[in-house]
Amino acid sequence: MTLGGLLLGAASAAADMHAETMALAEEKQCLSCHARDDDTPRAPGFNSIAAKYAGSEMHDYLVEVVMSGGEEHWGSATMPEAGERPEVSQAEAEQLVDWILSKAME
């Protein structure tokens, strides 16, 4: 396989992962409050989250926030508690956090 073929394969895999994670974010109702690019009146955008936590040691903390919700992690914004939204497993939360933090690399 050529280098060009490898790069196209990697780009295709990244696009598939993006689509899969966006579908997961939609299923878990993340997009009800969060947007990809801009902060909304209800919650910070994914890019803002990525910028705030880029290079930090906060991955596990963010996974916990995605799983449990709560407040006091972003100003006055309050994330719905776990019982008020679809349940998010540890693996799903890790996938979502990894995807959000990857936005800082773009």
Automatic annotation (TrEMBL):
The keyword Ribosomal protein does not apply. InterPro entries: Cyt_c-like_dom, Cyt_c-like_dom_sf, Cyt_c_ID. Pfam families: Cytochrom_C (PF00034). The keyword Heme applies. Residues 15-104 form the Cytochrome c domain. Heme c binds at residues 30, 34, 79. Keywords: Electron transport, Heme, Iron, Metal-binding, Transport. Binds 1 heme c group covalently per subunit. GO terms for molecular function: electron transfer activity; heme binding; iron ion binding. SUPFAM superfamilies: Cytochrome c (SSF46626). This is Cytochrome c-551. It comes from Halomonas urmiana. The lineage of its organism: Bacteria, Pseudomonadati, Pseudomonadota, Gammaproteobacteria, Oceanospirillales.
